[in-house]
Design goal:
The protein contains ten helices and ten strands. The protein is α/β, with parallel strands linked by helices and 301 residues long. The chain has one domain: Rossmann fold.
Length: 301
């Protein structure tokens, strides 16, 4: 497996992001080769961790506004960069990525850092991976906050907005990550913030993972990961662990799925579910402090 590693200087002096990276090596899934996976770990080490999982095509930078607030409340915040994103290694071929491999990479990372008593905060692909981890290893988790995410099985058509996004991701000659994130926000990001989302990707050879992610979402019943997600969804439908939804009000792809989760997850009954007003798909960017306060209240409560 060929991979590239973004030079460290690309991450120098990023706005609002003074956090130093930590690294774990995980099996690549291709022989004995290993890949370096980066993560942020801020706040007191003896505090129960809040695990923040990003999605497509962002990285842990997405959680900077929340980290600042939550660490201020005394929480420990852990935010990994998925393989192919952020400071983590990036296989160069789209065929090197699969949903199953992303799950294997995340399992290996979680076992290496050995987090316990986790509050999971997951958005977009962070939920596709995080909710699977949650039902596979419920003993590690204390609670979950789902934000603009779901566990798709391919049995329901994801709709025209997702179809348009998938088509764009495969056919646009310039997969401009920072501009894509900006387009998924209700706020207009500054040039500095857009550049920070572009930082992990010096050129297109670094973007195979970001390019292929939309194709890995189970969108048809015969998708190779559809059976695993159906099984995970059944386990989610039996999960008593406290489960909170905090979706934004202006996400054209995920809007309304919070109500589905509230109905099917036993641990969601009676929880103080909230809608974050003024947020787009990337609500951590649009409304990060507000979402952080929701998470803090859920943990403290």
């Amino acid at each position: 497996m060929d991979y590239v590693r973004t030079p460290d200087e690309r991450f120098a002096n990023l706005p609002e992001f003074p956090y130093e990276p930590h690294y774990v090596e995980v099996p690549s899934g291709d022989g004995d080769q290993r890949l370096r996976m980066a993560y942020i770990d801020e706040g007191p080490r003896d505090a129960a961790p809040i695990l923040m999982l990003h999605g497509e095509p962002s990285w842990s930078f997405l959680y900077r506004k929340m980290i600042r607030v939550l660490v201020g409340h005394g929480h420990r915040c852990v935010a990994p960069d998925l393989i192919g994103f952020g400071r983590s290694d990036k296989p160069t071929q789209r065929a090197d990525y699969s949903y199953a491999r992303h799950m294997a990479w995340m399992r290996s990372w979680l076992e290496a850092v050995d987090l316990q008593r986790i509050t999971l905060v997951c958005q977009d692909w962070g939920g596709l991976l995080g909710l699977r981890l949650l039902v596979e290893q419920p003993e590690r988790f204390a609670r979950c906050v789902a934000a603009n995410t779901m566990l798709p099985t391919g049995d329901v058509d994801p709709g025209p907005a997702f179809a348009a996004w998938k088509n764009f991701s495969q056919n646009t000659p310039d997969f401009a990550v920072g501009s894509i994130v900006n387009g998924g926000c209700t706020t207009d990001l500054s040039a500095e913030i857009v550049a920070a989302y572009d930082a992990p990707f010096p050129d297109d050879s670094f973007k195979a993972g970001a390019r292929v992610f939309p194709l890995l979402v189970p969108a048809t019943p015969d998708d190779p990961e559809a059976p695993a997600n159906r099984e995970a969804l059944q386990k989610l439908m039996a999960l008593e662990l406290p489960f909170l939804t905090a979706f934004s009000d202006q996400d054209p792809i995920m809007r309304g799925l919070d109500k589905v989760l509230q109905q099917i997850v036993p641990g969601a009954k009676g929880q103080p579910h909230t809608t974050i007003e003024g947020g787009g798909h990337f609500l951590q960017e649009d409304c990060g402090p507000a979402l952080a306060e929701v998470v803090h209240g859920f943990v403290a409560g």
